[in-house]
């Protein structure tokens, strides 16, 4: 039975992404007098100055789209540039000096993106579970299409659309965020509707004030992965066009971008709630994967240069106890205050370090070094064991520990797991154990609630163990992080408990979040007479359901040998320069 709350209030959604701890990003307050920069960088502030072997081709088996349509020849052309900066970036960051060829890229994958049989598991029970998740996606999508088509999210109780103000004037966040999920699930009619909407209605000439981070992870990330999966040039062109509109945000004295940008005028500014006009670690630190791919596809080195500049500054700056605080001034390049967290405000910065290394085919050694050094500092200062034996990540406020772990921080089980192989060999098992312990703690935060869904934040003080102690932390907004870690831990260990835990989450979502016209977040995970928040977040379609589907699929569906997932679960391919620049691959491709 799906319970629909009879009494509900229209509310603004609570927290969305990593940059915000609560619903701050929904209230884009422009500070009157601080840190505004125009597209040209002149207003407000003066600028100082401006190995493995190539894989054996899998193409003996015909490359097919999920719906069975034969893959077209989708070679892309791009101009060759000879700038010194491109030469620098091309060695490690994918700006191949050759014309980008979609066909060649496909040849350089170890496995077909969708696996041998679209990842269908042999075990009948697992397959049934996977089908259930697919049905949930179709249900969420159909209701979005029926009641909120073209808006950013569905309001499933009031049966209308939500636009909000995170994406400037951009629309259709749920459509762009869903493209790859629909595609991998083989929901081809739905995917084609989504593609048609992108073609005819995704208007990038909007004039609104957008979160750089959110637009990047959802729109740029969504379009890039749709392109890499399907070869449809439309997606590539839109991604690059949108990427260009984000560049003015970097016009600051340090090149650290501001958090908010007007996509029309290029004016950018800092969040009103971020102290002293600072930029947020999880926001400016979560651009690397997408921007490197923008360079890869456009041959324009500027994207990689922008994110490498951020990397360089962060590498150089002094860090308290080796930790990265969450707020940095884009003007002075100094930390603004010493709050450190692996959850909101910090999280995906760490994720993008290890994923940058993996995405570079393990050539980006700076990213690797920064990741493991940061992880050591995190272990030394933040990782704690509760009296009940649960391992958790506390937050750090200038040396004082806050024994709280956010739902957002639960992605770190998966992150530490995927990085276990590439640190010091003697630490491999240690990292796998740590990843498993954190994932276990996050599962406990679910099992200790009445709904079997986890709260926004849980604590380990005053007798609490993995439970929320404040009313304001009790909500669940369909977030993916716990399930994300189950998926990675399943792929890394094949311990069946992770699939069982994922199934518990499916049952809880069905019981408490499914309403007549979609899925909704809930306000209190500790009561089974749930009150719904009337919001089907786009990341539910992009991440939560995708990770569940992958959890119940074979490992060769979006194999981790070929793909890394951006922080919104959009798969981006590992850039295999050794193969992409290999003459034999090139000739073979050209002659076909
Ligand atoms: C998503 O937009 C991304 O996963 C982001 O990194 C964090 N927050 C949401 C989901 O909770």
Short description:
Helices cover 41% and strands 9% of the residues. It is built from 19 helices and 20 strands.
Notes on the protein architecture:
The chain has 592 residues and is α+β, with helices and mostly antiparallel strands. It has a single domain (19-591), classed as Glycosyltransferase (Alpha/alpha barrel). Helix content is 41%, strand content 9%. The protein has 19 helices and 20 strands. The strands form eight sheets. Strands 1-6-5-4 form a four-stranded antiparallel β-sheet. The termini are far apart. Residues 1-16, 20-35 and 38-97 have low confidence and may be disordered. Bound molecules: 1-deoxymannojirimycin (DMJ). 1-deoxymannojirimycin is lined by residues 17-18, 348, 408, 479-480, 539, 543, 567-568.
